[in-house]
Amino acid sequence: MPRVAEARVPAIPSTAGQKDRYQRILRAAAEHGAAHGIDGIQMLDVAKDAGVAIATLYRYFPSKTVLFTALLHSQVGRLDEMTPALSEVEDPAEAVGQLLVGIGARMLRSPLLAHAMLISNNAAVAGEVPTLAVTGVFADLMFKVAGVTDPSPYDVRLIRLVEQTWYGVLTSQLTGHITAADADADTRLACRLLLGDLGRR
Q1: How many domains does the chain have?
Q2: What range defines the domain where residue 152 resides?
């Protein structure tokens, strides 16, 4: 598991130029991560392909964990913009299940990159910088598709359990322990079992 840099807080881009460099770094990281996995990339190569100085890369991304967690955060954010809220005819559990199956299928088109993002997010949650993790953003996306606008603490717990289960299912598929069909079925079953009371208590 990658280590999280302990004493360095990532800088936040504010100007148009900084945001452009930030996005170029994320795109380069995605390409390198997809081709080589988190252990096979060098930050210097990412900086070179992004057209930035290595010091610039480290200012925004002090470690690979921060870099690939930020990449996952960016992808979830784009999904949020593209994903409509629950329609009146949809079942919340089924809607969340469909969302997770779709995200999983998209991520696993690049297995090495998916692995890099998942283990980095887990390392961020367990490390010194849990605020970097995408847990909150991802939970908000699931609540959105489930049509829950004012989640209770119980709802938050249910969504957290679904997210943790889904990470486990994806990891099992990535390591070849289950098939893609099994992963889809497991994800949908977990949502049906865990989210039956979502938004009702």
Answers
A1: 2
A2: 64-194
- Sorted by sequence, the CB contacts under 8 Å of residue 60 that are 6+ apart come out as 10, 11, 13, 21, 22, 25, 70
- Its pTM stands at 0.79
CA–CA dist 78, 62 (Å, integer): 23
* 141 and 68, same domain (yes or no): yes
175: tokens are 């390591």
For residue 142, the one-letter residue type is: M
Q: Are 174 and 114 in contact (CB under 8 A)?
A: yes
Asked whether residue 189 falls in the same domain as residue 136, the answer is yes
Per-residue pLDDT of 157-176, as tens digits, reads 999 999 999 989 999 999 89
Contact 93, 191 (CB under 8 A): yes
